[in-house]
Amino acid sequence: MSIKVLAIELYRAQQKVDKIRKSIEKEPYEQQEILKGELKEAEREHQMLRKMLDGRKESGSFKKKFEKFSSFK
Hints:
With about 70 residues, the chain is mainly alpha-helical. It has one domain (about 5-70). The chain has helices at about 5-25, 30-65. Helix 1 (about 5-25) packs antiparallel against helix 2. The chain is elongated, with a radius of gyration of 18 Å.
């Protein structure tokens, strides 16, 4: 997955987390419990995408850092 695609997916995941958080405040208690489960899942997805994006960015800068060595070209 490219960095651009990861960034787009991360943005979508963040929007989903924000939407669920806002919904929790408005819903009655019974519905809040269901939404809290959905929120945990959405936050896990967001975290995973964040780590993937950070890893991609880090590996790109790592390659540039050692570009002078022929094995990394």
